[in-house]
Amino acid sequence: MKKPGHVFGLSLFAILAGSGISTGQVQIRPGPIVNYQPIKEIPIGGDAEPGFMAVNAAARRLYLCHETELVVIDLDKDAVAGRIGGLPGVGGFALAPELGLGFSANGRENKAAIIDLKTESILSKVETGQEPSLILFEPDEQEVYVFSRPSQSATVFEAKTGKRTGVLPLPGQPMAAAVDPKAARVFCTVVISGSDEHEVASIDHIRLHTIADDWRTTSGLEPGGMAIDAERHRLFVGCNLAPRQALNGINLPGTGLVKANGLVLMMSAINGTVITRLRTGLGVEGIAFDPGTQLAFCLAAQEGTVSIAHEDSPQRLSLAQVMEAPKGIRFVAVDPKTHKLYVSAADFETRLPVAPGIPARRPRALQDTLRVLVFGPGK
């Protein structure tokens, strides 16, 4: 049942200073000793790029987005257990274990699928914006948010029925999303085309579909992946330098010049204040958070590293370990029961710039190199 009197709103919070918000400092101090090690590789095959993953810890299942299907992995055996087809261009997957349902964003058909997790069958499909690639389930209202980059919007529908309840216009392209049920908020990072100023959007669980506030990031930082510590209301936002800033660098208050590097921002999910920043490797991609260990995992695709940070307190984030990994890693998921880390990876062809100053075209994933890397905490 919907709560009476709700109003659907949208507010945008700044990532960095420039609006009177405290920025903290980039941290380089070490955190507690963490010893994650590679355990296994799960071969997937095909020529697809590394896909998004979602963990159903209770059912012991990991779901990997793979071209037109979801690859189902048994978390106890770390092996492929099945596949769910009929999902053209699946780019995102969200879980509602309490409803026995899953939801996929199918980019090639502009639809989201509602999936029965027990039978692994498609129950129905919902029309969305163009080429949806990002999706999440909001448990308080039991609604699904499907984000579209080309449409710069989010389609919202009821999880049980598939009935659409609204379309939220966004100021740019949504890149990643997270939900904080206790704060009654949904968050997404937003990149504005043709601009060096970008945003993190905070969406109220209400119905009017309006933007209440508009906060911009410091010019030159482009937000991407995001994870959340819902208990402490802390967001972890991965940022890279915008393309035109990558060579020259950017001066951040209290940090000096940051050049060709990535950052993880820890910010309040209540008021958007950036509490602290932590440097990572080049090409920040996926981020995941393990509430059981208070560890945040950040992938650096260009450099081929996984930075592991520890949330020492709601005011402090420190670097605990940097693991080597293949270049091109993209998405990461954590099993909260075993604390194992799952990373989607593939090998890519080498492409050289076509002319000086003109970047090479996006490389393609090599045939049959797609796999899931499994890492585990050491003794």
Overview of the structural elements:
With 379 residues, the chain is mainly beta. The chain has a single domain, classed as YVTN repeat-like/Quinoprotein amine dehydrogenase (Methylamine Dehydrogenase, Chain H). 0% of the residues lie in helices and 52% in strands. The protein has no helices and 32 strands. It has strands at residues 9-13, 26-27, 36-43, 53-56, 61-66, 69-74, 79-84, 90-96, 101-106, 111-116, 121-127, 132-138, 143-148, 153-158, 164-169, 173-180, 185-191, 199-204, 210-213, 221-229, 234-241, 250-252, 256-258, 262-268, 274-280, 284-290, 295-300, 305-313, 316-324, 332-334, 341-345, 371-377. The strands form eight sheets. Strands 16-17-18-1-19 form a five-stranded mixed beta sheet, with no helix packed on it. The protein has a five-stranded mixed beta sheet with strand order 2-25-24-21-20, with no helix packed on it. β9 (101-106) and β10 form a beta hairpin. Mean pLDDT is 82; it is low at 1-29 and 245-260.
Quickly give the CATH architecture.
Answer: 7 Propeller
The count of strands amounts to 32
The coarse silhouette is globular
Report low-confidence residues grouped into runs of 5 or more. 1-29, 245-260
Structural class label: mainly beta
CATH homologous superfamily?
YVTN repeat-like/Quinoprotein amine dehydrogenase
Write down the CATH topology: Methylamine Dehydrogenase, Chain H
Radius of gyration over C-alpha positions, nearest whole angstrom: 20 Å
* Number of contiguous helices: 0
Fraction of residues in β-strands:
over 45%
CATH class: Mainly Beta
Q: Please report the distance between the alpha carbons of the first and last residues.
A: 47 Å
Q: Largest beta sheet, briefly? A: 5 strands, mixed
- Fraction of residues in H or I helices: under 10%
Task: Calculate the mean pLDDT score and round it.
Answer: 82
Oligomer class = single chain
